[in-house]
Amino acid sequence: MTEPLRTLVLPPLGSLPLSRSDTDRDGVLRLAPDLFDSLWSSPETLVLVLADGRAPVTGTGLKLFPASGIRQPANPVYLGRVLPGAADAGKQVVLVVLDEPDFALAGEEEWLGLRDVAASLDPRDAGLFVAGAAVANWHATHTHCPRCGSPTVPADGGWVRRCPQDGSQHFPRTDAAIIVSVVDEDDRLLLGSAVTWPENRFSTLAGFVEPGESLEAAVVREVAEESGVEVHSPRYLGSQPWPFPASIMLGFTAVASGTELEPDGVEIKTVRWFTRQELFEAVRDGDITIAGSVSIARALIERWYGGPLDEEPAEVRP
How far apart are CA 138 and CA 74, in angstroms? Predict the structure, then answer.
């Protein structure tokens, strides 16, 4: 089998926590009619178990189980084959979703969510957890045909749902959303606080791409709608899946044409400009909190800042 090509050139944000993977999704094998019977009879098959968005984690790694120790469910999902160089290289991984955590498999304290552990996982486990969480969310919310309302059935290794009544096929949905670091002429960063967030929580502005809209147009529109700031020169920096429940976050930076602020009051309650020193002191003193290390928002902020936010800002930043 030819080894899949790996990404050799990364965008400016580099390898983000939820964008890493050491698994070949093995799309051809998904079509095998006896796929899961074959996988469950193989000693090379490992099982990732999810329940309520949580998976068993031991130390800094996922706790994967031999298929022989897990009952084959009605609706498993084939996640693919582990690439050479990663732990358990060549082994195939299947997702099993439970209604609730099974404490016979792992202790209560070992069942952790993706946001809790993604930054500490290696690329293999991060990729498996992200893919598993995303496809599990899709199955849970797309059980019926959008055309005729009939119950659908999983197919193609769990990556398609087919309607037995009208024959239509339905595929996992991913919603595109832009997220943008806006800077002004004085190189200050614009951050906003959402209506639903705690009073002192701030992050970069973001929003969903609308039908028939380019990514760059979405950057300009969303920033103007949420903050009242007109921007230009949007530049792509990188992307990261965000399976909470089904988004892909596309990171940009853009330049503000003006500095007057007018939050929309519907999605964003407060917007503020920050210098690097102001942001450092606000975070250090606990006056504000910002996006966690797993998010692309944190990567955008630290790219502008020039390093980790727990370090005093340098006099000169790129």
Answer: 16
Return the pLDDT at 10.
83
Q: 300: which DSSP letter? A: H
Residues, the chain: 318
Residue 172, exposed/middle/buried by CB under 10 A (0-12, 13-18, 19+)? middle
Q: Which DSSP symbol is given to 314?
A: P
Q: Across all residues in the chain, what is the average pLDDT?
A: 95
b or e along 213-230 (b: 16 or more beta carbons within 10 Å of the residue's beta carbon)?
Answer: eeebebbbbbbbebbebe
The whole-angstrom separation of Cα 298 and Cα 102 is 34
**Residue 87 structure tokens:** 């732990």
What's the CA gap between 77 and 73, in Å, rounded? 10
Answer yes or no: pTM beyond 0.85: yes
Question: What parts of the chain have a pLDDT lower than 70?
Answer: 1-8, 315-318
Q: Taking Cα atoms as reference points, which of 140, 217, 142, 215 lies closest to residue 176? A: 215
Q: Do the Cβ atoms of 50 and 107 come closer than 8 Å?
A: no
- Short-list 57, 170, 26, 206, CA closest to 120: 57
Half-sphere exposure for 99 (CA within 13 Å, toward CB):
2
Q: Which two tokens stand for residue 27?
A: 């799309």
Say which residues have a Cβ less than 8 Å from residue 30's Cβ, sequence separation at least 6: 78, 156, 157, 158, 159
Q: Assess contact for 174 and 182: CB atoms under 8 A.
A: no
Residue whose pair of structure tokens reads 């006099």 in the numeric block: 315
User: Which of 152, 196, 202, 197 is closest to 172 using CA atoms?
Assistant: 152
Question: What Å distances lie between residue 20 and 28, 152, 159, 294, CA to CA?
Answer: 22, 31, 20, 12
Helix (H) or strand (E) holding 283: helix 276-284
Q: Contact 235/208 with Cβ under 8 angstroms?
A: no
Residue 40: in which H helix or E strand, if any? Answer: helix 35-40
User: How deeply is 245 buried, as exposed, middle or buried, from its count of CB atoms within 10 A (0-12, 13-18, 19+)?
Assistant: middle
